[in-house]
Amino acid sequence: MPLSADARRLLADRRRRIADAMPGGVMLLASASEQIRTADTHFPFRQDSDFDYVTGFSEPDAIAVLAPGHAEPYALFVRPKDAEREQWVGRRAGVEGAVADFDAAVAHPIADFEKEIGRWLAKADEVWLPLGRQDVLGERLMAVVRAAQAQRPRSGAGPHVLHEAGEVLHEMRLFKDPTELRLLRETIAIAAEAHREAMRTARPGMREYEIEALVDYTFRRRGAVGPAYPSIVAGGANAVVLHYTDNAAELAADALLLIDAGSERAGYCADITRTFPIGPRFSPAHRDLYDAVLASQLAAIGAVKPGATLDGLHALTLRVLVEALVHLGLLAGGVDEIVEKETYKRLYMHRTSHWLGRDVHDVGRYKVADAPRPLAPGMVFTIEPGCYVPADADDLPAGLRGTGIRIEDDVLVTDTGCEVLSKDAPKLAPEIEELRRAAFA
Asked: pTM of this prediction?
């Protein structure tokens, strides 16, 4: 599909910023390739995040060349038009469309990449490319750089410095522009609606996959391409498994249901977790533990501002949670000792935050010069404390064994603090119980 005028302007601006960051160099980027699911059936295609961020080109098996100062500063190598293949699997932009609809200065068939790339690399001292790519396209990028470098002793020119493309791209992607924030708000709103629907619907005796189907249906009905990651729908002790995805068990009336599910729309991901009673209300023991996890999350959200760090937010979350777990009899000892010796990790074993954007675990450094990175306006990340009580923990209160609770929100750093982008997914216990009553009406 051709790019809109607004998208063209946005992408052109990104490419200008990349050019400013690597004057005289060349950046090579590869699209994703189609992946076989089984036999001749493919997984749904999902474009490489960096490639999409720079080009907006949505087809597989393509390569982009960015060469500031070159006579052809932006080139695309793409699959050519093929009437027979297009009859089976859909329209291709082709070489002509790469120029007319995606603003490449020049385009060539992907098969001609090795033959044509020399004119961009021959005089480039530095090359940026995704060094971690180990697929066929990634190997092609590295191979042409090696070939160009091998000519350097004879020509006196050519690449002699390699950079990770993420040094430029991932710093840009860490700070969301207004268009990205609009798209993030849209997909997060869809995910929040799916969580509300689950709270209105889940009942004892249903299977986890019924709720998963409802969540994924809500994503698609509202225009998302589907889940941003396999939805976790974990009832009872299944919630103690952090990445549980079997989603097949029957829901028990006296247990909690943890749903970690986010939609993907227009290349941007939501990531929301909510935990609620499968019955109409929390048991007293569950409510106490739920409120402890929520208090730790609210403390972290309240501390988000420019200059804070994710390490600092994690430390605050941890202290508030550990204090509550000591009070509830789930941990024993002094708070400082528990934190120092990390004995809390039996119950809370993951970090509190990760970046969010085009990828669920989005790109961007967490440390700069070996120090925690200060937060700044435009960054988006999660805050997701949890508590996971093993089912076989005979030394812990019986009413909490086999209980997993996680509460996760998506947060934008603003000039003065933060905006909770996922606020429309209820998390206060009275709000949740009000929605749960609808399931039993």
From this structure: 0.96
